Amino acid sequence: MRPKSGGRPPMGRPGQSAESAPSGQQKKLPTQFVNFVFFKVDSAWRRLDREEQEEGKREFAAVVKEYQEKGVMVHSYSMVGIRSDADFMLWRIAKNVEQFQEMMTRLLHTGLGKYLEITYSYLSFTKRSMYVDKMDPEHQNPRVYIIPGMKKYLFVYPFIKTRDWYQLSYPTRQGMMDEHIQVGSKYPSVKLNTTYSFGIDDHEFVVAFETDEVTDFSLLVQELRETEASRYTLRDVPMFTCIHHSDVMNALNTL
């Protein structure tokens, strides 16, 4: 699918990723490590008195803001009333995975953290796509450096391709991706962020779609089901619908 902001840098030879293009042809941007972590609040927390709840939320929010000041991107989303297995989510982007661990250790020792269960956590990183966007080949690829949190809604899911997909020739896969990109271009309100998890988590990709229109995303997914490339998707669940809150305290106030 074609991202809706930014673009792609010039690519190397067919089948060659941009990272492996000859020196001097590409400006190497720093890799971002990405984590989508989903929390479920223990029902016992809601039985605490209001003062203890508020103090726990303030402690949690203070840790988030501390790491934001250290350069970790953290965006907050609520799923209260939307999913039964997660109440809120943090989308974190950092320069190394150790920052995720350090931050989570701190979060789980706050007053609120003691009542949280991590129900899902997905680890991935950014890199250039090996597929050429023939509709817009000269633009820089925004998958290399993500700036999230610009839209009201976020839709997140991990997915895995079948092994047969990787046995296809590069031109064959590129042809299927051309169709995929063409469908995506019909929905300019939806921004795609693709990140990669090969070898570092159970899946191969984590995709995060940002939009202000829920129905636009649903129509996009429905149309993508009809593309040839969809035959090679092995698994693309669970899917999460998340509502963005610009301040973490606002997200916590939905609990």
Overview of the molecule:
- This protein is of the alpha+beta class.
- Helix content is 27%, strand content 25%.
- It contains six helices and nine strands.
- Strands 1, 2, 3, 4, 5, 6, 7, 8 and 9 form a nine-stranded antiparallel sheet that branches.
- A hairpin with an 8-residue loop joins strand 6 and strand 7.
- The longest helix is centred in the first third of the chain and has 20 residues.
- The radius of gyration is 19 Å and the shape is elongated.
- The relative contact order is 0.22.
- The N terminus is likely disordered.
Top keywords for this entry?
255 residues; alpha+beta; nine-stranded antiparallel beta sheet; elongated
What is the fold's blueprint, element by element?
Blueprint lengths: L32 E9 L8 H20 L3 E6 L9 E7 L2 H12 L7 E10 L27 E9 L1 H5 L2 H15 L6 E6 L8 E7 L2 H11 L8 E3 L4 E6 L2 H5 L3
Antiparallel strand pairs: 1-3, 1-4, 2-3, 2-9, 5-7, 5-8, 5-9, 6-7
Helix pairs in contact: 1-2
Structural class: alpha+beta
Query: What is the average per-residue confidence, as pLDDT, rounded to a whole number?
Result: 88
Q: Using the CA coordinates, give the radius of gyration.
A: 19 Å
Helix segment tally: 6
Work out the strand percent: 15-25%
Low-confidence stretches: 1-25
Distance between the termini: 34 Å
Largest sheet: 9 strands, antiparallel
Topology, number of strands? 9
The helicity comes to 25-40%
Element-by-element helix/strand order: EHEEHEEHHEEHEEH
From the spread of the alpha carbons, the general shape counts as elongated
